[in-house]
Request: fold
Amino acid sequence: VTSKCLLMKAEMTGSKSGRREKPKDAFEDTDGLYDPECENTGSFKAKQCNGTTCWCVNTAGVRRTDKHDADLKCGQLVRTTWIIIEMKHAERNTPLNTESLKKFFKETITNRYMLDGRYISSVLYEKPYITIDLKQNSSDKSAGDVDIADVAYYFEKDVKGDSIFHNNRLNVSIDNEMVRFEKTVVYYVDEIAPEFSMKSLTPGLIAVIVVVIVAIVAGIVVLVLTRRRKGKYVKAEVKEMNEMHRGLNA
Reply:
């Protein structure tokens, strides 16, 4: 049984963030659709290029390095072993039924995308967020098993209303009630951490870092100026007292 202290800590963490934190090496697909180079087996080539610009990808075809020139070396196709699908449903008065929700998504993923159920690690509901974890190590994957990267690609398009299935759109119905999603994000965790530099940070994140640095510098400047002013005031007071003493002595 988990201790009360740890349970309370977990509950407080959930209430502050509103959803489960992502692993530190999880990253999103910031490039979207591109024309990939594929192996004869249908898998992605480790190195992808667009003209003279090249980058390395994982088994999901998602860029995991900065973009470089054509001399870039991508030694191996790094496997994505964990995919986190996070959805946010539209505002509603009552939360969804957790058990019905889990049942729906597990059955949908196994039946519609033919993924073995053992690769569905968890389905977590933290209103209004639904998080689905797909985990598949290369050692566990059989030759005929569907890859979790393929499932995530189909699933994301289905939820966003851009189904790849011909005339067969996915309708999310929980307890006979249609559920509408406002946002869907897919995170990828590779067996080897990605190799992004500061250059690959989004402009928004860079802006936040710059604001923080400016705030720190401004705080230091204010502190120094305040101390200098206090020092001047002390000197002035000492000078006035000395002059008063001289006047009394005279």
